[in-house]
Amino acid sequence: MPRGLSMHIGINEIDETKYGTKGELKNPENDALTMEGLAKAGNFTPIATLLTKGATSDRVDAGLREAASQLSAGDILLLTYAGHGAQVPDKNGDEPDRRDETWVLYDRQFIDDELHALFATFAEGVRILMLSDSCHSGSVARDISFSLSSPELERTFDTSDPDQVRARVRVLPQDAQFRNYQREQETYDEIQRSLPSLDEQDVKADVLLISGCQDNQTSSDGVGPNGLFTETLLKTWKNGAFEGSYSTLHRRVTEAMPFYQTPNLFQSGRSTQEFLGQSPFSI
């Protein structure tokens, strides 16, 4: 029998001493807990649910290594992330725009090169389903050239008007990105230099990403208990009553989203049609 494990990350605020801002969000922890519940209902075994201060780079790394050690061909990992997205300068030449995409973990940014190096540790034939409800998450591994203007950033983090909460988006402000990179440049640069480029990594797992938006878009934090993408996904999923494939799920979610936020479907590794055509969240 195939085995299903899950890992969930939700970060409502980040370490101000590292980033110069708390980058407060309303719903990522709820997203992680909601997806943990969905996973349990589907008979996945959660191996880690990392919330805010617990969502550190060491714990994310350890959780993925633990999953890789337990899963074999035919098994599946459900990996979900909710929080800020950002960038650091590309130091190993594997990004056309010279910027690496990151997950903004509590203690530091987790570079896309790290994520894909960890995927390369999974056995051939393992399925990895990744949901990323974060800004610039279209591929979580490719170039992004979009940036917010100062007025947009000011609006993004202004929570004084409840009617504007939906406008808050999950992107780390550029000034915070700059300050964080300046402070931690040696760490980020060394991480990239120590890893093979994306082209050199042999990912034999079957990786399928459904993201909250395109690489050049931002993801809304939402007005309810969940981010807009997670909320729409759950409504489409209908507690398991949804019928169709991952392709169909992505299409239906996209149809229900506003024009300014378009979820992406992206495959890497083995990239089989078989995985794409399976019933979502099935082991």
Provide an overview of this structure.
- The longest helix has 21 residues, at 174-194.
- The strands form 2 sheets. Strands 2-1-3-7-8-9 form a 6-stranded mixed sheet, sandwiched between helices. A 3-stranded antiparallel sheet has the order 4-5-6.
- It has helices at residues 16-19, 28-41, 57-70, 112-119, 150-156, 174-194, 228-237, 246-256, 273-276; strands at residues 4-10, 45-51, 76-82, 85-89, 99-104, 109-111, 127-133, 206-211, 265-269.
- It is globular, with a radius of gyration of 17 Å.
- It is of the alpha/beta class.
- A hairpin with a 4-residue loop joins β5 (99-104) and β6.
Q: Please trace the helix and strand order, writing H or E for each element.
A: EHHEHEEEEHEHHEHHEH
Shape: globular
Residues in helix, %: 25-40%
Low-confidence stretches: 140-167
How do the strands of the widest beta sheet line up side by side?
2-1-3-7-8-9
Query: Which whole number gives the mean pLDDT?
Result: 85
Number of strands: 9
Number of helical segments with 4 or more residues: 9
Q: How would you sum up this structure in a few lines?
A:
The protein is an alpha/beta fold and 283 residues long.
What would the keywords be for this entry?
283 residues, alpha/beta, 9 helices
